[in-house]
Amino acid sequence: MNTALMDSPSTTPVISDEKLAFFHREGYLVVPDIFADHDLQPVIDEITSQLDDLARAAVKAGTLSRTYEEFDFDHRLAMINRQTPEIAKAMWNTNVVLPSFFDLMRTPRLLDAVERLCGPEIIASSVYRLRPKVPSHTQSAVPWHQDSGYFEPFCDKGLVLTVWLPLVDATREKGCMWVLPRQHKSKVFTHRAAEGQPYLEIPPEALPAGDAVCCPVPKGGALLMTNLTPHASFENNTDMVRWSMDLRYQSAALPTNAKITRLPGEIVGTPEPTGSDDAPVACFPPEPDFLVRSRLRPTEVMSNQQDFLRLRREHVTRPVTDRWREDWKMGMKV
């Protein structure tokens, strides 16, 4: 198995022409220097505060002997998880939406990279997740899949960009991501519900041939992937937590439920598509999109944490595709 090619540090633009060509050819790119410490620290601080609340509640309930607050960010949840897995599960849950996530999603250097791939009218896709991979947590090992397996089939035709970013150094031993390069030029492979896990997976007989590539990413970097790139992550074999997030972006030309003025040529979907050729209301209707960068409608760009949190709170959930007709837990993994 191979190791991912990284963009060289301190390049201008964030993604060079060479690396842009690599992304389109291979379906992924590791960029090691998108975020500064001051971009990530507010997220780490809010996660720590959330963990404080959960640990204290568990101590009060008698399910945890102490809060383990003497341990650092890399180790604390791993220590807690030795006594109870419930806190790690709660932190992994999609209900964890913190104000700092909004600022992270708007990091200018990140959006510069996204613009190179998605164009200047950028939707922050609804599907953003916090991922604390603790040692020996079986549900944090994610089987081979394509993100399009979770999206409306119509959106297989466009790019919904995954930005996977660690909040600590993500190494092979900690359970970093693996990809199957060049398979994004194929199709959405058959998926099924993974046994005993709330995920979809590509079964072994449907997995395309080819060498998988290991993608270690340093803190401050990100792995960029297309929605058709098969990827997976395996168990964390260290005593530390592999904290990470994944964010998604798309062009405003694709179906979106963001409350924005639609421009000529942009696709306006219907809430009740009847076939794969019909445009849906969004690529992932259960969760809300928002406009994060725009040259043509700058006054409609979401600009503050309060609006972001209100959007998450007030969004009316719509059904997601049933393309696989499987009973998996919607929203736990994309």
Quick rundown:
The chain has 334 residues and is of the alpha+beta class.
Number of domains: 1
Assign the structural class, choosing from mainly alpha, mainly beta, alpha/beta, alpha+beta, or little secondary structure: alpha+beta
Order of helices and strands: EHEHHHHHEEEEEEEEEEEEH
The general outline is: globular
Any idea of the CATH class? Mainly Beta
Structure overview:
23% of the residues lie in helices and 17% in strands. The chain is α+β, with helices and mostly antiparallel strands. It has a single domain, classed as Jelly Rolls. Strands 2, 3, 4, 6, 11, 13 and 14 form a seven-stranded antiparallel β-sheet that branches. A five-stranded mixed β-sheet has the order 1-10-7-12-5, with no helix packed on it. Strands 8-9 form a two-stranded antiparallel sheet. A hairpin with a 6-residue loop joins strand 8 (192-193) and strand 9. Helix 2 (37-61) runs antiparallel to helix 5. Mean pLDDT is 90; it is low at 6-11 and 327-334.
